[in-house]
Amino acid sequence: IGEGDEVITAPNSFLATAGSVISAGATPVFADVRDDYNIDPSKIEEAVTEKTKAIIPVHLTGRPADMKAVLDIAKQHGLYVIEDAAQSVGASYNGKKAGSFGIAGCFSFHPLKTLNAYGDGGAITTSDAALYERLMKIRNHGLKNRDECEFWGYNSRLDNLQAAILNVKLKHLDKWNRRKREMAALYRERLQGISGIISVPSDAPGEEAVYHTFIIRCENRDELQRHLLKQGIETKVHYPIPIHLQKAAAALGYKEGDFPNAERLAKTILSLPIYPELSNDEIETVCNEIRAFYTSR
Ligand SMILES: *Cc1c(COP(=O)(O)O)cnc(C)c1O
What we know:
Layout: E1 6-9, H1 16-23, E2 27-30, H2 41-47, E3 52-56, H3 67-77, E4 80-84, E5 92-93, E6 96-97, E7 104-108, E8 122-125, H4 129-138, H5 160-170, H6 173-190, E9 197-199, E10 207-208, E11 214-218, H7 221-230, H8 260-268, E12 269-272, H9 280-295
Parallel strand pairs: 1-2, 1-3, 3-4, 4-7
Antiparallel strand pairs: 5-6, 5-10, 7-8, 9-11, 11-12
């Protein structure tokens, strides 16, 4: 995939998703998302042109994208599927793990991810032997062995110290993900019936989400966020500015209104604290503060 090619992806991801397409010399083409934050297959269909080479669904928030529909479209048009599984290590869809559907699955071990290194790291999964061989070389300057270089690559080796740390942490991943699912269930229970909350995430049939983030949609989002911060509760917005509206994306020619759902979601979403070490008591406190905020209005 290179110059002149198009790759379809979501506009509401972390910047790296579209950035990787640009790095390859190709053009990212966005397709709007559904209310579950993941790419809308019917919008992918509309975005396909003769130049389209691949689709990058993002399993945002730790929830798998609608892979059956994505794979069907890819098959029909002869496109590669590359999964951005950076937020979904351990998640599954109809019993199959995120990152195992497309020709490649991309994972991040950034400190903010569940399986996290003490610095940067990442991995690509593939069941394609030729791609595997190429990736093994390209991450090490294109070297086939110590002295022979077949093509230009780059320095993208996983640092040994980070790999050793990740090796230890990997053993705890399932436990951490189970704990995050437990925390999501507690949030769901405690946030029930609060007016002002528009939606709270839950698993769709066949999904096992890992709740990388726990994103609610709510009224008066910015005020609620300020109220929580005053109580010592930090929340974030993932992400306040959709990628197509970033300055860096100006040359792609998009404008406000192009992806109404992604833009609408960006204005009401709020990520509540969720990480394995968070206690049930702390979750109760967060929920009580949210309830207090809306009750006092
Ligand atoms: C974190 C993240 C990335 C980028 O990961 P890096 O390790 O910084 O390369 C890509 N996509 C999504 C959805 C992410 O959350």
